[in-house]
Each structure stands twice: as C-alpha cells, then as structure tokens.
Amino acid sequence: MGFLDALLGRTKPVKPDLDQLFGLPSAAITLEAAAGFKPTGVGSVCFASVEGGAFAQVQQDVQALLDADVERGGIAIESSRDSYGYSWMTARQPAEDIVSLVNDVHAINSALESTGFGPQLLCSLVNFTDAQQRPLALVYIYKRGSFYPFAPKPGGGERRDNALELEIKAMLGNDLRVEQDLTRWFPVWGAPGL
C-alpha cells in the first residue's frame, strides 16, 4: 500500500482466513437460542471449475480424503454443478454434529487452497432451518474473509427475506466476522440443501 493507493481510496484486499469457519459452532448456539434456527447437517463449498487434469485430480483427492470417513461411519461428500455453471462439494453430517460438518467444509477449502486453486474458491455455506421450515445459510465469502446470512423465502422463486437477514446479522456480530458491505451479500440460488 502506497501513499497514492491511500489517496485514491484503494484498499488492500482482506486475506482469506479459513479458521473463521471454526466460529460457526458458537454462531449455531446463538442462532438457536435467539431465533430458533438449528443446523440441518448440510454444508457446501462453491468454486469456479477449472478445466484440466490437475484440477480434476485435486477434486478427486478431496473426495477420497473425505470419503475415507465413510468407512468409519462418516457420510460421503457429493459433487454437483448448479445452473450457473459453478461447482459444489456438499458434506452431510447428522444435524446435531455441526463440528464435524465445519471440519469437512474446512478440509475441502484447505485442500483446494493448498494445491493452488484458492482463487477458484467463491464461498462456503452451512445451512439452518427453524420450526416454520424457513431456510437460512451462513455464507463465508472466501475473498472477503467474512460471513453474511442468506435467507431465501420458502415456496420457490428467487426471493429473499431481507428483514430476516438483517435480524440474523445483528445477532451474530459477537460470534462471526460479519460482512458490513451489504452489496456483497450475493444470493446463492441453487445452493445444495437450501
């Protein structure tokens, strides 16, 4: 950062900090106590796919690493692609085991990052629902190192419950680094489990 950058309003980008994901279990306690939202046991990582053998090999290695848990009673990781062309790796754990779910999501992110594919990482989600079956995801923005709530309205269509998102933002300020720039709260339509 130089003087000219400061003068022109340029800022140094925030470095991704995957360890922020480990704040999700305490955020889950806050969500349940304050708003009645409980984890669904579904978490996912979204990334831009890259063509080529190296990326395919990394994806297979991540799949094999996490599928090794299946032999010990764990749950397999699923790969999918959404209608926008983004790739997803989805982990499923028992709803009450958010710690294992966060570990799986962290492992996927870490494996992609450590093999040089960090720039392809877009976001990670952990899904929640309440007694009225309203869906909610806490979204970690890889390139910003922060979280935001995403609450699609039930019943189909691409509509968001903005009031609920702002309510959740206010609740989680002590548990997670919440993204303050609301223009960066992008919708994640078609995310697995929502």
Question: Outline of this structure?
Answer:
By secondary structure, the protein is an alpha+beta fold.
Structure write-up:
It holds the Pfam family PspAB. The mean pLDDT is 85. Helix content is 34%, strand content 21%. The protein is globular and about 45 Å long. Helix 3 packs antiparallel against helix 4. The protein is of the alpha+beta class. Strand 5 (135-141) and strand 6 form a beta hairpin. It has one domain (14-184).
Low-confidence stretches: none
Tell me the strand percentage band.
15-25%
The major beta sheet can be summarized as: 6 strands, antiparallel
Q: Based on CA inertia axes, which overall geometry fits?
A: globular
Number of domains: 1
- Strands of the largest sheet, in order across it? 2-3-1-4-5-6
**Number of E strands:** 6
Could you spell the SSE succession in H and E letters? HHEHEEHEEEH
Rg, nearest Å: 17 Å
The portion of residues assigned to helices is: 25-40%
Structural class: alpha+beta
Distance between the termini: 40 Å
Overall mean confidence score, pLDDT: 85
Number of helices: 5
Pfam families: PspAB
How are the elements arranged and paired?
Blueprint (H helix, E strand, L loop, with lengths): L2 H5 L16 H12 L2 E10 L5 H19 L6 E4 L5 E6 L5 H20 L3 E9 L5 E7 L4 E5 L11 H10 L23
Helix pairs in contact: 3-4
